[in-house]
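**Paired protein data**
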Amino acid sequence: MTTSRGIDVSAHQGPQDWAEHKRDGVTFAFAKASEGQHSKDSRFATHIAGAKAAGLVVGGYHFAWPNQSAAAEAANYIAAVKGHAGPGFVHWLDLERYSDGRNYRGRSAAQIKAWAAAWIAAVEQAFPRQRVGIYTSAADLAAGHVPSGVPLWYPAYPGNSVDTYAEAEKRAQPKPSGRSPVFWQFVGSPLDRSVCYMSATDLRLWAGAGTTTEGGKPKYEPYPGTAFFMSGKQPALGKSSPVFTAMGRRLVAVGCGRYKQGPGPKLGQADVDSYEAYQRSLGYTGADAKWPPGPTSWSKLHVPNV
């Protein structure tokens, strides 16, 4: 599977040689921006400026306290990243329990999930057409803390058997609770390192970086029409187009991939199954959730938050 490489940093890391990271093959970098209702990371601006100057895909993350106000925490994060979150900036909610449980204390699984959904909605509203996802653990996924249809950045550390990018890239993509993460953080020391299950080019497209704009909005593949996806009354299985590869990668990115391998340029049953899963995640039921894609769901998949 095609991947790209990246790191994440916070105030715990000192100054970084971002040009050296790029020479080492790093294509993305995420930095801690805030935590809770008031705390902001002291090195966030420096980290982001350096990563941007090196030409990396960048983003920020907020460490969550679900037993506090979602609105206040979203406002804290928004204020922290507002001057840095231009086109192609990716936003992450870091949803993980402190070892003593102090940030989850007094909250049920349903309440944590609702809190996460509220934080995401507030950030999506503040930054239209930018990606907003969740960094979270297998335990949080199993507990039902994560809303469906949200891009996932997943930490899991196999140890010495996977402590380099090359070793991580040889491993199968993790499937925690049946979800397909967009990013896998495979090591946490001496620096957090992740792989993304997209090429560097596809990652930039996914993040909204490097795209042309139309009326100030990112321009992605336009909806090609119902006939493009069909052969008579049946899916056009076997039809070849790069549109299907891009579509499949985005379906994987939002956690709706049903692929054992691929996706590829030829339309297959896994593409159909994946897109129908995506339409169900949007709330469609019955015939409305069936293939082919419609213009509304296509726009939501290709241009976030429409």
Observations:
- The first helix runs from residue 18 to 23.
